[in-house]
Amino acid sequence: METALALEQTAVQVQRLSAQQMTFVRVLEKSGDDLKSDIERELEENAALEKADAGADDVPAETADGDDAYEEDAGLQEDGVGPAPEEKNDLWDNFGSDDDDAYYSDYAPEEQGTGYQLREQESFMDELLAQADELDLNDTEHQVMEFLIGSLDNDGLLRDPNNNGAPLESWKVAQLLSINNNVDVDEETVERMVRKLQTFEPVGVGGRSLQECLLIQLRRKPRQTPEVQTAQRIVERYYDDFRNKRMDRLKQACNLDEEGLQRVWEVLTHLNPQPGRSLNETAVAVAPPKLPDFIVRANDKGGFDVELTRGDVPTLYVSPAYKASLQELKGNRKELTQEQKNQKELIESGINRAMMYINALQQRQDTLLKTMRTIVMLQPAYFETGDREQLVPMKLEDVARITLMDVSTVSRATKDKYADTDFGLVALKSLFTQSVKTASGEELSRDKVKNRIQELIDGEDKRHPLSDIELTALLNKEGLAVARRTVVKYRMRMNIPTARLRRQ
């Protein structure tokens, strides 16, 4: 038998994000507090980037007017990230104002306290189920994911309560699903859903042990510094020494000196061993105050004004001293020494990075404002009344279609963002609702279905409470075409126990 070897050349299209796009993606998904920290870190790491003092009028004119905006790779939509090129869209006509004064609102926390409490608190399970809803899962995968979320302990980990907190293995999940839920699923599917769960927020949720929980957090660190990589190595290979603080062994194993170990230890001690600690299966009684990213107010024209809150985001510009140094070096290009050439490259790199960051912040503001205006336009009844029953079915795809942006961009633009409304602070993610069709073909938001389930349970005979099958039958009789699985999911989200536990 002869074996023939051949070389074959094929063209494969690989999608890669440019440095500009990656910077935009990073700043877009950050909340206001996280963005402030990101800006401070960028200012600390790049001397070519400077910020104007509060209330200062001495910002270089060319930077203030935007002439120094970084334009390379600015068209982000080609790679599925960022805003698409502007197109005429009649829906935007006469919506709000495009004046510079209307773009920002100087939010003053001293007038409203240090922050706002969320008008509606979501439970730990509710937040995770909402993230699961954004995934493209089939019916079986949905049931597996819901079971996994329901199996998390108070720390947010997948541990077996019947086996002294040992990892909840995939084979056992498959077995429990078959026995208790009549769901036939293989271990491979369960394992795949566990991996998806481990990508959810808060980071570290879904780990089957404390060790795996810490590794998830380290692997998802956006900046894989040498200290982070060494910390990951310690948790992977020397977990017992780490847990028992055997510093000498760790220094020897990782070839670290005292100062190096201290830096790595700083990374390790800032990990969260209990990602679900502040969240449990009941609504959080007192949540940390949130500063709004938007202000939405009804105006006297029958519409709404939407403004971004500037918060503590400073005005940034490229250092004039850096630009002057670069121009001087360029003027003497033929006479530069090797050291001066290296200096020129460093200065150019710093300026390019600064311009790229400034441009990404501007794109972030444009994207956020367009996204929020679209949400208000799609949900006018809700923003007028504050009644969640007035929410119409709305998906990320609906906003993406109107704004001409990618779905992933809309998802990032709404992640951890809040709007200050006439009726309180609202999380943008809570405004996206799936629909349920009635027998007549009408689409209702799931909040109306959840309210109807609550009404049926409130009015049930507590000696013979309604089972999930009976609730499903009653809803279907009323024209609400929902499956039993949907009823179970909504009941769990409302923290309502099963019929057996409601019996009095």
User: How many individual helices?
Assistant: 23
The span between the termini is: 78 Å
Percent in strands: 5-15%
Number of domains: 3
Average pLDDT taken over every residue: 78
**Alpha carbon gyration radius:** 27 Å
How is the quaternary structure best described? single chain
**Main pleated-sheet profile:** 5 strands, mixed
| Shape designation | flat
Contiguous runs where pLDDT drops below 50 for at least 5 residues: 62-115, 280-287
Summing up helix and strand content along with how strands pair, one would put the structural category as: alpha+beta
- Helix proportion of residues, in percent? 40-55%
In what order do the strands lie side by side in the largest sheet? 2-6-5-8-9
Give structural attributes.
alpha+beta, 504 residues, single chain, 47% helix, 23 helices, Arc Repressor Mutant, subunit A, flat, five-stranded mixed beta sheet
Short recap of the structure:
By secondary structure, the chain is α+β, with helices and mostly antiparallel strands.
